[in-house]
Design a protein that fits this description.
The chain is built from 2 helices and 33 strands. It is an all-beta fold and about 425 residues long. The chain folds into 3 domains: about 150 residues, Immunoglobulins (Immunoglobulin-like); about 120 residues, Jelly Rolls, CATH 2.60.120; about 120 residues, Jelly Rolls (Sandwich). Strands 1, 24, 26, 28, 29, 31, 32 and 33 form an 8-stranded antiparallel sheet that branches. Strands 12, 14, 16, 19, 21 and 22 form a 6-stranded mixed sheet that branches. The longest helix has 6 residues. The radius of gyration is 25 Å and the shape is globular.
């Protein structure tokens, strides 16, 4: 009796999300826990921890006191926004936020009062990668007490992309990446970027006026426009070299919104670069999408005989209102001891472990589809996974913002 012919494999479609996928699928503001800073925390060595799920309250007292907070680094493609709200202080309302690297002394960014409610560190990169980084709260001038204050923190993938002209009006806005870098090339220059929004989503827009930390002399302004290109919010509080922020604003209708950067006051220096970008529901902005993998030829009750064909179709749909520009890749990876690749039409690369497909530019509603055929091998073991990975460049062909859209999605779970 041929044992191979009667051995059955049961396949169940199982979707398991990796950390990045969990971040990307959040559709509402994450619950925020409020806690108080704990003394002593006057040095990096005694710093309190700070996380995105917390809203820290504290007091700068006595005069000359400082509060340090430690944040976990990721890598140099990640960073953070930190916001110090001093509007409720019953003494001084003038606070200063300072960002430091892993040594606790190398200053990366400083801000004193560029936000209407306090101070903000905007799009600060983790320069020391996964090492601890530090944020210090102090009273500006160290000559009064301050409090109570509130401190918010957002850890974000940055994937900074260069803005591309022409984008001087909301009508000519380029598609926004997670964060975008640019400069005012001439007096009157405007840079506009577009985002796809579902009604009721909450957004924050932040601008770092001096990402190189070398002293900007440009006074930037942020403006937000609705789908009819009517301005609905703006921020021009930071002054020369100051950061800007449009704080959490709930957008009331589905459509394409635009945010623009300009410098209406004075003469901008074309060498003064900025980094600006949106935060959606407390997390990174990203194009919405649906991944629908399908097993096209399942056997009875989800079983197949060893040696039988298993064909899978991968469908990636852009569900946002804007195109996903640039190079897009889709990978199917499998255990070569369990599954043998038979055919992968249109793949630009195949091996005994994976097949890869690619395309350029995925329009709104457009579907990127690929199929591949494998064969179940006699060496198939329990809990074998066929993984599917989507990857693309944040903005434009050849940019350096490459990242995985969908790591950690598995199909199928193979049980012998």
């Amino acid at each position: 009796m041929n044992k191979t012919a009667v051995s059955l494999v049961k396949l169940t479609l199982v979707f398991a999300a990796g950390v990045f996928l969990v971040v990307m699928f959040v559709s509402a503001m994450a619950a925020t826990a409020t806690r108080s800073e704990v003394e002593p925390n006057d040095t990096p060595a005694t710093a309190n921890t700070l996380d995105t799920s917390e809203d820290i309250t504290g007091t700068i007292a006595p005069v000359g006191d400082v509060d340090y907070f430690q944040v976990d680094g990721v890598n140099q493609l990640w960073g953070y926004i930190a916001m110090l709200d001093t509007s409720g202080s019953i003494t001084s309302t003038h606070g200063t936020l300072t960002a430091f690297g892993q040594d606790g002394t190398t200053q990366l960014q400083i801000d004193s009062g560029s936000w209407i409610s306090g101070s903000v560190l905007a799009w600060q990169k983790f320069v020391d990668s996964s090492a601890d980084h530090y944020i210090r709260v102090s009273e500006t001038g160290d000559d009064e007490t301050l409090g109570p204050y509130s401190l918010r923190y957002y850890r974000l993938a940055m994937s900074v992309q260069d803005e591309v002209e022409p984008n001087d009006t909301p009508a000519t806005a380029m598609v926004s990446a997670k964060s975008n870098k640019g400069a005012m090339d001439s007096p009157g220059d405007v840079d506009c970027l577009s985002i796809s929004v579902q009604d009721g989503e909450q957004f924050l827009f932040a601008l770092n006026a001096d990402p190189d930390n070398n002293g900007s002399t440009t006074d930037f302004e942020l403006q937000l426009y609705d789908p009819a290109d009517i301005q609905i919010a703006s921020a021009d509080f930071g002054g020369v070299g100051g950061n800007e922020v449009i704080d959490n604003i709930t957008l009331p209708e589905t459509g394409i919104y635009k945010y623009c950067i300009s410098s209406p006051s004075g003469t901008p220096d074309p060498l003064d670069e900025y980094i600006a970008g949106p935060v959606r529901n407390g997390h990174n902005y990203y194009p919405t999408y649906i991944l629908k993998p399908v097993w096209l030829n399942p056997g009875p009750a989800g079983t197949v005989a060893m040696g039988s064909s298993l064909t899978f179709q991968l469908n990636f749909t852009n569900t946002s209102l804007l195109p996903m520009p640039g190079w897009i890749g889709m990978y199917g990876s499998f255990d070569e001891n369990c599954l043998e690749l038979v055919d992968a039409p249109g793949a630009y690369y195949t091996s005994t472990k994976e097949a890869r497909w690619e395309m350029v530019d995925l329009g709104p509603g457009e579907v990127f589809t690929a199929e591949f055929e494998t064969r179940a091998k006699i060496g198939c073991q329990d809990n074998v996974h066929e993984s599917v990975v989507m990857a693309y460049y944040d903005l434009g062909v050849g940019k350096d913002g490459f990242y995985n859209v969908l790591p950690g999605v598995y199909l199928p779970l193979v049980t012998k």
